[in-house]
Amino acid sequence: xxxxxxxxxxxxxxxxxxxxxxxxxxxxxxxxxxxxxxxxxxxxxxxxxxxxxxxxxxxxxxxxxxxxxxxxxxxxxxxxxxxxxxxxxxxxxxxxxxxxxxxxxxxxxxxxxxxxxxxxxxxxxxxxxxxxxxxxxxxxxxxxxxxxxxxxxxxxxxxxxxxxxxxxxxxxxxxxxxxxxxxxxxxxxxxxxxxxxxxxxxxxxxxxxxxxxxxxxxxxxxxxxxxxxxxxxxxxxxxxxxxxxxxxxxxxxxxxxxxxxxxxxxxxxxxxxxxxxxxxxxxxxxxxxxxxxxxxxxxxxxxxxxxxxxxxxxxxxxxxxxxxxxxxxxxxxxxxxxxxxxxxxxxxxxxxxxxxxxxxxxxxxxxxxxxxxxxxxxxxxxxxxxxxxxxxxxxxxxxxxxxxxxxxxxxxxxxxxxxxxxxxxxxxxxxxxxxxxxxxxxxxxxxxxxxxxxxxxxxxxxxxxxxxxxxxxxxxxxxxxxxxxxxxxxxxxxxxxxxxxxxxxxxxxxxxxxxxxxxxxxxxxxxxxxxxxxxxxxxxxxxxxxxxxxxxxxxxxxxxxxxxxxxxxxxxxxxxxxxxxxxxxxxxxxxxxxxxxxxxxxxxxxxxxxxxxxxxxxxxxxxxxxxxxxxxxxxxxxxxxxxxxxxxxxxxxxxxxxxxxxxxxxxxxxxxxxxxxxxxxxxxxxxxxxxxxxxxxxxxxxxxxxxxxxxxxxxxxxxxxxxxxx
Length: 726
Fold this sequence. Notes:
Blueprint: H1 5-22, E1 25-29, E2 39-43, H2 50-62, E3 67-70, H3 77-85, E4 88-90, H4 96-106, E5 111-113, E6 126-127, E7 130-131, E8 133-135, E9 138-140, H5 145-165, H6 169-179, H7 186-190, E10 195-204, H8 212-220, H9 226-240, E11 244-249, E12 253-254, H10 256-259, H11 263-270, H12 285-304, H13 310-320, E13 325-327, H14 328-344, H15 368-379, E14 383-386, E15 389-392, H16 394-398, H17 406-409, H18 411-419, H19 423-432, H20 437-463, H21 472-475, E16 478-480, E17 487-492, H22 503-511, E18 515-519, H23 528-532, H24 536-551, E19 556-562, H25 564-575, E20 583-586, H26 596-612, E21 622-624, E22 636-638, H27 639-655, E23 663-668, H28 677-685, E24 691-696, H29 709-725
Parallel strand pairs: 1-11, 2-5, 2-10, 3-4, 3-5, 17-18, 17-19, 19-20, 20-23, 23-24
Antiparallel strand pairs: 6-7, 8-9, 10-11, 10-12, 13-15, 14-15, 16-18, 21-22
Helix pairs in contact: 4-5, 5-6, 5-12, 8-9, 13-14, 13-18, 14-19, 14-20, 20-24, 24-25, 25-27, 26-27
């Protein structure tokens, strides 16, 4: 084929520019699977973009110009010249077999074929365990053309080997003339083997929205067809939006073993006939059978490489609910457990976002992927979302969508269909729908109780320092349960401390009818070296996991924290207003009295500089600490930890205005660690009307364990009772 290099270079430049400008993230996986042999790429077909994208990527990454099969409707007028110049072959071209076989025999060009034969907008490719494709009102099997071309090429290659062995150069010359290659290339040709490389392209997210392309088309062309409008909205949003495109190149399928797998095919390879008419093979049943088997093998590979993302999982679970209305909390738990299972079975093709922390689905913090999906579904009238309950619009889910507009009219069904072939994963979600909500709740709670214990023991074993680390019972998180009680409280300890610090208050509240969970913030209860590598987000996440445990254990609960733990409690309440019965802060810092925190940023920067130049001599990573409770607190304070504490205080300060729950602020009058102005500042910056400030007459910081503990405990209990009664 005569592919125009100038035109190809122009297209490459244009696509480079478009991809960069649109913020499209193309992630190639398994590119090293592509062999240095003649290759037929078989690719799933969801948008028109693949027809441009695949040749572009092959040229960009493998420096090869591909030829591909395109529908005959694109070959008319000037469009035909364009298609010819970019290596496209019409489905109506009587010489298409010859062109592709030549490309594969000589390894002149890789071949791209879309086995579905058209865009599969609904992603529905399996019915009753068989591959079935929608086509002009009917369902049909996928085309086996890619298998046929690959097998024909390998059959001819084997015939050439046979003729060379027999020194029958006349037959070689006839084949060379028929398929337009030079006899001089015989040695190179017979050393090769044709491979089929399955390719899966997955887009995320897929949204049908008005965009610059659809608006522009609407201005220039009146009365656009519904089909074209849908394509502009969906594919325009992919081209112009920040979309991730995961492209998986599968394990190459060697076709020689297929070509010789039937006795009749072996006999034909060995006989003296020269098979020049490729159309004759359609009438050979053994050849047809091998084509179908090969087609099923590469179709399994293509759809087995779908890159699973949040939208797939949420769509599948959403459509699996047997009832029309269900708890949003239950929905989130099932999503979380499905993702956890995905990780457990180590699915090879997952969107990168699934490897990030997913427990924010359960903490009522903002989860960007979840909110994007649900808000889109609500905006498009698939769902209604009210007071923690999701209700499906029965009409949108029960009325069949038109094939050509389904990506716009019911993307949820499309996304479900896309992962339907992944039976080893979807079976779990099918089974999950029969699990009652109370068991899902129990499973989630126990998962996080176990996780928190495991994290502590792992950290303790890793960082244990003889003579410095405290006994395990000091640092281990605890859960004090009151059976038949539906109320609870989360308690959060302070900086350089451990759960044992809050134990007296926990015991008191437990005796007065509360379920109490004592959080262990990461980096605490082990050794200062552990704390030195943790950031404040890790501390916040520890409290978030406690939130999940308590939310799945009781009906209503509060959160309280001492010192830095008070800051964590305030930030939790600020990030999820209305979720707690109340929030209590005890000696939480906005301003510290010690000098260590003020100089911490500069010291951290100095230590970082010394690390870069590999100088350890003048580093100052820890400073001495003289705590009130040396049996609980660390005796060395990591400078990096003080820096993280400063960042946390700024974060809390900025978010106090968002607190809507009843709030009690307790402050020691002459606190030597936290500037007593902190308590009043926190109180003033909380906008909610239901708040109380309580000053404790004390000249030390640790008022949960001093002589003031009785007064503090009583005030906390009274406030909890008062908040519960309102």
